[in-house]
Amino acid sequence: MIQHYKLIVQYKGTRYLGWQVQPESAGLTVQGEVNKALAVVSKSGEVKTLGSGRTDAGVHALGQVVKASIPLTIDPGSLVKALNGNLPDDIRVIHAENSDEVFFPTVHAISKEYHYRFTAHRSFSAFQNDLIANCPFELNLEQMREACKVFIGRHDFTNFYCEGTEVASNIREIYECEILEVSQGDWGMLPPHYVFRVVGNGFLKQMVRLLVGATWNIGRGKTTLDQLKGALGPTKVHRLGPVAPPEGLYLVRVNY
Amino acid sequence: MIQHYKLIVQYKGTRYLGWQVQPESAGLTVQGEVNKALAVVSKSGEVKTLGSGRTDAGVHALGQVVKASIPLTIDPGSLVKALNGNLPDDIRVIHAENSDEVFFPTVHAISKEYHYRFTAHRSFSAFQNDLIANCPFELNLEQMREACKVFIGRHDFTNFYCEGTEVASNIREIYECEILEVSQGDWGMLPPHYVFRVVGNGFLKQMVRLLVGATWNIGRGKTTLDQLKGALGPTKVHRLGPVAPPEGLYLVRVNY
Known about the structure:
The structure is a homodimer. Chain A has about 260 residues and is an alpha+beta fold. Helices cover about 20% and strands about 30% of the residues of chain A. The first copy, chain A, is built from five helices and ten strands; from the N terminus they run E-H-E-E-H-E-E-E-H-E-E-E-H-H-E. In chain A, strands 1, 2, 3, 4, 5, 6, 7, 8, 9 and 10 form a ten-stranded mixed β-sheet that branches. The interface of A and B includes residues 10, 127 and 182 of A.
């Protein structure tokens, strides 16, 4: 009988084409690796997984939520151990619990939290590649924090997504948006850096990376806060910034 | 005319065979990459570098010291920028200053500081691979801290090195040795971990990794402190622990 489990999965996205499974020949995906581990553990080809959402190539997750359906009844703690024994080091299942058939990680998500990590120096550290992006310019943090406030609320994010996936509406609500300063302390090897933290009821394709790119341009003085406010509507405007690179982005938490 | 510079070089060792240059066909080395960048910047094949010591494959450096001799007179700040523009992202020159012909990074070093980072959980984080080793056992930290105290002082480290390089003596002095607990704070993505910190007047081949391996065995109760004390002499004894894996090791500082 098929059993359903809710898994919390952590992954370093560097080596992967993203969450979503692809034809084998395209390359490695996180979902593909999770499916393989589930097949080994359940000794079955009848494995089905659903993630809370896609993450792009190179994007990381601290808490991706996955529904796994397998023909195996197992204690969730043992499932965690068995899966981690069959997964590559850069994918870890950190929690499992019993779930039911009607749980859908995508549609039932109330909100999601993303972090975008970046340094803002002309030079960067040898250890931040893959983990923290670099915006090699002087940035005005105060202006960027004003930009974060502009994003909060219910807006049409037509100007902050990349087409490709069909969606019913471009309206999303941002609950929290801020920039934190992170020091790794005296004994860390990672450089001090910034975290663009955003919590919302949903995000369009590449939306977080476009919000970060627009915020960088605000910080550089290339875009004004008025231009930013003007872009939060259904009318297409000239793009306000780059798509910030994937290595800085972390799907941190999905709330149900 | 050949000019001499003292460089401080940071690198993530994951992709490299180590510091020391090897025949091109063997693979990438940090010194090889630094030499290539120096050749481009000085527009010359007449490039010579000397590191403070070798680091093995996969071992990192926060502050390797390198003497670079090139037929180019350039302001040290400009040299840093030019080199970083020609180096891969996982090698960074963080400082340069003028040096002289008689400076030898190896023999003039008064002391070196190494850190060895590790977690001690059955499970580990998806982000620590390449950067923090995992010792998947319950460890008795108190006993391990006693082991650190045993190492301090002037000892014959015959039982704590791998043969391969000719050395005049196996006697070295350890000035400081301790285990620190590192939290990455609320906003870090790396897991809380331990740092085995050691400062000494010199280290034999793989010595730090063997000290760490022996300390792990003390923490697991597989080796006693008396056995450890007994091994600090010129008489060969049965090996006291594994060579801890390279990814946890960082050459932090070389003092002159």
